[in-house]
Amino acid sequence: MGRAQGGDLPGAIEILEAFCAGGDAPDAAFAALGALHLEAGNPEKALEVLLPHSRRSQPDPAVFFNTGRAAEALARFTDAVAFYRRSVALDGFSPAVRALGMLLGRLGRSGESYELLQTWLEANTNDHSARIAAAASAVDLGLANDAESLIEGLPSDAPAIRLLRGRILLLRDDPWGALGQLQPLAEQPPPALELDVRRSLADTWLQVGDPEAAIEQMQLIPPGDPADTVQLANAYSQAGRLQDAIETLAPLAEPLVGSEPPEDPGALALNVLVDYGRYLLSAGDARKALSFLQLAADIGPDFAGAFEALADGLEASGRPEEAAAARARYETLTATPLPGRTRFDVAANADDRLGQGIREALEMAFTGDADGALERLDRQLAQVPGDPRAAYVRSSILLQNGRAEEALAAADRALEIAPGRADGMYQRGVVLMALQRLPEAEDMFRRALDVAPQHPAALSDYAALLMSTARSAEAADLLSRLVEQRPDDARVLAMLGRSLLDARRFREAEQPLRRAVELDPRNAAILLDLASALWEENRPDEAEQHAREATALMPDAPAGHRLLGALLLWRGDYLEAAASLEQAIASGSQDAALHLELARAWEGAAGETEDSGEEESRLKRAETAYRRATERAPEHAEAAYGLAQVLRKLGRTEEAAVQMERYRMLYQQDQQDTREQGLESAEPDGRP
């Protein structure tokens, strides 16, 4: 390969072709020849050389790898994935691991992409491109902490890093921070990143309540991607431009009616039908809406949202009996009772003295006699040393009484007695989680579920661990399995809804949260989560209703007043928004973002009054809120800018000029910090 390294690709190819023509060349030689054709920009020739050798019974992993590269270069992605997989199967350290992870990420299969790239990066930590791709998959999965760790140390002013930081901030419910990353990038986005930048910025504008700005970004994206079309229609709807929303979605929705129904319509097609039907309903065209909603119900018999929307359409059309049937189907899909099970297998029959003794020990612990309960369990262990149940419960009681190390020893004892029991693995995981030994706890929960895939306690606590480490998408999968067992458990449904919210799967979160509210209608926390999901689904009226219910149930809880205030601020009901946000602050919430929202509310309220005295009073309240925001976050450029604008409206031009200068300094400092961080993290040769 000396000629190739010296830049003489044609010469290297000629030598290898002659060698391979001899008939006894090893597969590695053909793999190298294919690689040279790829370097020469000739993937067709590479594929021609490699395909015959990829069909051998025991080919070289490099043959599969380079065949995959050639197929990928020719946009034959299904073939490329298959060849990469076969290379990885033969050699777990093959560069095909990286290639497969990168390709799957581009194809939107983020979960598998992330796992593969994590494996690759364990041995290739300086592969910055793979780190960026892994971080992008982590963001897709809602793993903000993992994504941030992956890009740590990379130049922060690099466009790909700015885009990722913006998306991470969106995951952390900081859309204003995301704007700071994405807006400058959107002015002249790199061609390879432009679509992702504009999609992310549009999503950000929707989150801060400016759908017109979102529409502006979406209109810069070339048409053709159905998901972009749905997003643009949603933005039009949120902006109150219902006819534009209908016209935008019509090219996707209209052909679906009257054509052969697809066997597997997919989530996108179902959402198109339901969204389009809802838009038509809102526009007063219930008759036409019904054709789309009925089709959604027909081709998605298990899609609860279709039946809920269909029920609304039938009611609007004056067909109450059919509406009731659709509503009943919706309720059936969202609530199918199944039996539950106990946390531990300690149930006893009449002849089970150990089980009876354990129940008595639990009763003693419940009444406060933990030491007596532990003594009784010790006697049970001595009497029946081969039964692990007393050890499980002993560990649980010790943990509840703050004796975690002793609880771990008891859990270890249970596993010694019965090493293959899921309950023992689960209990050890619980203790490890309490000791903050999270990787070990996760391993135990995984082992418990390998033994008993439907173990309800392991599903629940493992999900809680995942949610605590920002892995809500994985938690949602576990909780969905648990809901199948316990569809009428409001706590489990609420956990599932919260995990889906954290994973930004808002439409999916609505169903379990609605059912949880039905089961526990006075639970303010669940009502707030449902309100959040509905708001994200662009249904502000329903969101406001549930937020008001929550604040009525918990008048002293700041979260309800804050959510209600944010909803009202987005709606433009500035005075009521200000009152709600003031209540959130009075109830104990004091962060800079809340004061910033309050300032915007008072500033908006000032523009609504014609009384000059009242206008000045409201502007002064806005000034106070902006100042409090700057006190809590002195580096917050937006707060400085807002304060400058309010001071200008109050006629205090000199103070306004000072704040504007402060804003400019903060902005310039942000830019300088970004540049310096990029230089510090660069390698000695100056490249990332």
Structure description:
This protein is mostly helical. It has 38 helices and no strands. It has helices at residues 2-5, 9-20, 27-39, 43-54, 61-73, 77-90, 96-106, 110-123, 128-140, 144-151, 159-171, 175-187, 194-207, 211-218, 226-238, 242-253, 266-282, 286-299, 304-316, 320-334, 353-366, 370-383, 389-400, 404-417, 422-434, 438-451, 456-468, 472-485, 490-502, 506-519, 524-536, 540-553, 558-571, 574-586, 592-606, 612-632, 637-649, 653-681. Helix 19 (304-316) packs antiparallel against helix 20. The longest helix is centred in the last third of the chain and has 29 residues, at 653-681. The protein is globular, with a radius of gyration of 30 Å. It starts with a helix and ends in a 7-residue tail after the last helix. Residues 1-6, 335-352 and 678-688 have low confidence and may be disordered.
